[in-house]
Write a structure and sequence with these properties.
Elements: H1 2-5, H2 8-21, E1 35-37, E2 61-67, E3 77-83, E4 91-93, E5 104-106, H3 113-130, H4 152-162, H5 214-231, H6 235-240
Antiparallel strand pairs: 1-2, 2-3, 4-5
Helix pairs in contact: 3-4
């Protein structure tokens, strides 16, 4: 992909091909597999934190080797590491009393020590992956401030300078038990304190699933549709009526 990105004529040619018939390099994703990884079971962090993963076979982080990099010139291999069991929790609050104003969102990334320890392990796993014999003479050197990442402190500083969202945000309207005094929606997706309003999207997840959020949203939507069909007055009667067609 770097060859295409670094040559405007190639880039425009393949971009036009994709617009014409949805084929060519832009029809492919930049990676073809994912590595799921966990902290070692004997990691000292578990003395202070419970394991947030759902089981011994559930990952703490995912890694995507990407074909290409964000820098002009050259050819790059990018190792994208994502934390999939974060313990950090952000906040959403009102900016003003105007409902159309943007809210104040503070994701509070890495506010839990567990998240930083897990991400340090992900970076170290990336280093082990790139050091494998298969990459000899292909990977020439690290770039972008990664030349001297040896100690945990050096890696943690690199993470804090370069981290960003994985664009899988959830939980801004978290679901909670019906009688709980926290959360935004009840188990049937109804907004607490409001009438006739439900929320059905990834914002109701109380925590991010250890996976891509797309499939869980499908499950959520199917469940919500069953609940709404059940509760809608007259829906069952209307559904039972045969369709009449006239000419």
């Amino acid at each position: 992909m770097d060859d295409i990105k670094n040559h405007p004529s190639f880039y425009n040619h393949f971009l036009n091909e994709w617009f014409r018939n949805n084929t060519g390099p832009f029809a492919a994703i930049s990676n073809s597999f994912v590595n799921w990884g966990r902290l070692p079971d004997d990691s000292s962090i578990f003395h202070s934190f419970r394991d947030p993963a759902s089981g011994r076979n559930t990952p703490h982080y995912g890694q995507y080797p990407l074909n290409g990099g964000p820098y002009p010139g050259g050819q790059y291999l990018t190792m994208l590491s994502l934390l999939v069991t974060p313990l950090s929790r952000g906040t959403v609050s009102l900016r003003t009393s105007n409902p159309f104003d943007q809210p104040l969102i503070d994701p509070r990334y890495m506010s839990s020590k567990f998240d930083l320890v897990a991400m340090i392990e992900a970076v170290r796993n990336s280093q082990r992956f790139i050091a494998a014999p298969a990459w000899r003479n292909y990977v020439l050197r690290p770039v972008a401030g990664q030349e001297n990442l040896n100690t945990d402190d050096q890696i943690s500083q690199f993470i804090l300078r370069n981290m960003r969202s994985g664009i899988h945000g959830v939980g801004t309207a978290s679901m909670s038990p019906r009688n709980a005094n926290y959360g935004v929606v009840d188990p049937e997706f109804r907004v607490k304190g409001a009438s006739g309003l439900r929320i059905v999207d990834a914002s109701v997840f109380p925590f991010i699933p250890a996976a891509h959020t797309q499939a869980p949203v499908y499950i959520l939507a199917e469940r919500a549709s069953d609940i709404i069909r059940r509760d809608w007055p007259g829906f069952q009667d209307a559904e039972a009526q045969p369709a009449l067609f006239t000419q």
